[in-house]
Amino acid sequence: MKAPGTVTTGGQIKVRGRIPTSRAGARRRTIVTYRSAGARRWRSGDTGWTNRRGEFTLSITAPAQAGLLSVRVASPRLGRLEAVRRTLAVSVIAPTTTPTPTPAATPTATPTATPTATPTVTPTVTPTVTPTSSPTDTPTVAPTPSDEPTVEPTPTGPLGDPDDWTYIGSGDSMRWDACQTITWSYDATAQPYPGAEADMTKAFAMIAEKTGHSFSRVPLGDAAFTVDWSNPDEDVRLAGSVVGIGGPTTRRIDPALNNGTQRAIVGGMVVLDASHASVPGGFGHSGWGQVMLHEIGHATGLGHASGREQVMAPVATIYNTVFGAGDLTGLAEVGTSKGCLQMDPYGRAADRDTTVTWME
Ligand SMILES: [Zn+2]
């Protein structure tokens, strides 16, 4: 899974990009608006103009409260050029170090100013918007902040298409044995925040609830399913914006004996990238909990979904912080509903057909 952009509270968010402009190089008006997760109204940020190549740089100041932010760049229709509207998600996080206010010299002194926490960490990711899409998904009416709906539709259930899920790898159907407890281990050595172990435990419980599988934590070295923290220097699969990888080890089985299932999952692996220090812990927002669910999902047999509202979408954003309809179908399909596995119909051939798969 890949990480969203992040910025610290009160920090500047620079939004850069390029939009199509006329051959003559007309400058186009650009407007940036933003909205905190759960807020109804879009707030105004910068308004400016592109240069003659259509390039723009706009900025907004991140709110003082941590959370998720939708940032939208819009440009009205210009002659034959369609209006442009792009939205991206930015994680606003608290600074990792908070300055300690200097105590007043004597108890009787009257403070003349309130100590103000100043972020000492600069954003490591600058969100960049590069509109590249076809005209079909751009509105024909120039969007302005006042055009935006002031009320968000209230979701009534799991979002997205119930069929929006896949098996990981070549598409063979697979699952863990419904009649065995799945043992897992957790190496806390390199974990980047104290609550990471509790978050991982909760993630396994959430997957257990939706699949029916039973997970049991065991000591390091004894588990079929290993969870570890690493970094891009140790594991090149974590390079760039990748925050975690996960996948199963599988063996071919006889579908006729296994309710149609083609592969048995006999091992699982999740590796998370501790170098992404700005990703927040916990669940219910874009952060490590969401990444853990995604990677356990891979190791439970699921590939990527196409809709952004599924936890199994390739990128962690504000849109897929809870299981979507496709996730729930997929988790049920790789769950215990299809019964125990007959593991060894091919005798020794099964051992030669062990396949390891992983995805970001
Ligand atoms: Zn993935």
UniProtKB/TrEMBL annotation:
Residues 95-163 are annotated as: Disordered. Residues 105-145 have a biased composition (Low complexity). Pfam families: Peptidase_M10. It comes from Nocardioides pinisoli. Keywords: Hydrolase, Metal-binding, Metalloprotease, Protease, Zinc. It comes from the Bacteria. Residues 172-337 form the Peptidase metallopeptidase domain. Its EC number is 3.4.24.-. Gene3D superfamilies: Collagenase (Catalytic Domain). One of its GO terms (molecular function) is metallopeptidase activity. This is Matrixin family metalloprotease.
